[in-house]
Specification:
Dihydrolipoamide Transferase; eight-stranded mixed β-sheet; Chloramphenicol Acetyltransferase; 3 domains; globular; four-stranded antiparallel β-sheet; 401 residues; alpha+beta; OB fold (Dihydrolipoamide Acetyltransferase, E2P)
Length: 401
């Protein structure tokens, strides 16, 4: 029996996927549920498992865009599994005898150094003698491309490599690019900045991180502090936890926090659901789970769908300051950056403190300057006084120690 394997729907609103990589070859024997391909959608890269066991015949090439429901391969379920684990190859196809095409009329021959009209124009404009240019066309004819390349550049010749390469962008990368451009063109995006003295968080982590890890199996990182500080600020400024829906503003009474992480196929933005109900341990555990799934290419579309606010951490790559782009249709995104010891004035004295610059990009159509600045100040206050504002003055209870 020959089974036609069709592309399953990876999620709502997705109509096509792209074959990123075949993990098997034409004629291989595959086991049921074995991953046979990686497919890109505009939201994630997913593995395609074999529906049955048998010999596979591929019906799409890598890089092909195929519609959901289209046949991508055939599996012969009547084939027996080979002994020794080696897959039998499908029988070679009998090729039809090749028919030679009639020879085209003999091309004209050109004198060495002759140039096409377009090439002559380029050479004349630049004052270059055609005799000094090597042609790559038929019979040494100088093409327009030869003439363009012969034009001296304004730079200093180095004799180094001048090669270029071209590669196709994945569907995920193309969709991310489209969404970023759409945000810039359709929102009134503005960014406000502030700085955070990370000394209190450094002190808490230094004292409790080992005990926290031994008790819960996850590290006490910065993301839990930032996530809980954002949740507190969103509750204080609900407009930041809203988004445009036509002519209406849609507000949420929950905080689904998207966290931007770098995956093997590009930027992934999994969502921490109902972060307002999570403790430090809960946030750290969820961040670790989602980051590992993104890194291993196991993240699903559902895990990246939704989100009411985004946190992105460019600091892990060394970024000092940036203006993050809103993750549509959300209205706000918080950018974290690297932590650098800087001189600051405290009580009339110059002291050295670990400082992080933070940035809030927001949609000015529904978030006013007062709300955006107030939100970022609320985040700063919580991070600089976490014991009181995030832990209710009970550190051990907050960390569940």
């Amino acid at each position: 029996m020959i089974l036609e394997m069709k592309v399953p729907s990876p999620g709502e609103s997705i109509t096509e996927v792209e074959i990123a990589t075949w993990l098997v070859e034409d004629g291989d024997y595959v086991e049921k549920d074995q991953a046979i391909a990686e497919v890109d959608s505009d939201k994630a890269t997913l593995e395609l498992p074999a529906e049955v066991s048998g010999i596979i015949t591929l019906k799409a090439e890598e890089g092909d865009a195929v519609e959901v429901g289209a046949v991508v391969c055939l599996i012969d379920t009547s084939a027996e599994k080979p002994a020794g684990g080696e897959a039998p190859k499908a029988e070679a196809k009998v090729e039809a005898p090749k028919v030679e095409a009639p020879k085209a009329t003999e091309a004209k021959t050109y004198a060495t150094g002759s140039a096409s009209p377009a090439a002559k124009k380029v050479l004349a404009e630049k004052g270059i003698d055609a005799a000094s240019v090597s042609g790559t066309g038929k019979a040494g004819r100088i093409t327009k491309e030869d003439a363009v390349k012969a034009v001296p550049s304004m730079g200093t010749p180095t004799g180094g490599s001048r090669g270029t390469s071209r590669s196709k962008m994945s569907m995920l990368r193309r969709k991310v690019a489209e969404r970023l451009v759409e945000v810039k063109n359709t929102t009134a995006m503005l960014t406000t900045f502030n700085e955070v003295d990370m000394s209190p968080i450094f002190a808490l982590r230094s004292e409790y991180k080992e005990t926290f890890k031994a008790k819960h199996g996850v590290g006490l990182g910065f993301m839990s502090f930032f996530t809980l500080a954002v949740v507190r600020a969103l509750e204080m400024y609900p407009a930041v936890n809203s988004m445009m829906d036509g002519k209406e503003m849609l507000s949420y009474d929950f905080c689904d926090i998207s966290i931007a992480v770098s995956g093997p196929k590009g930027l992934m933005v999994p969502v921490i659901r109902n972060a307002e109900n999570l403790s430090f341990r809960g946030v750290e555990s969820e961040v670790k789970r989602l980051a590992l799934r993104a890194r291993d290419g196991q993240i699903t579309v559902d895990e990246m769908t939704g989100g009411t606010f985004t946190i992105t951490n460019g600091g892990v790559f060394g970024s000092m300051l940036s203006t993050p782009i809103i993750n549509p249709p959300q209205s706000g995104i918080l950018g974290m950056h690297n932590i650098v010891e800087r001189p600051v004035a405290i009580d009339g004295q110059v002291v050295i403190r670990p400082i992080m610059y933070v940035a809030l990009s927001y949609d000015h159509r529904i978030i006013d300057g007062k709300e955006s600045v107030g939100f970022l100040v609320a985040v700063k206050e919580a991070l600089e006084n976490p014991t009181e504002l995030l832990m209710n003055n009970d550190i051990k209870k907050a960390l569940e120690l």
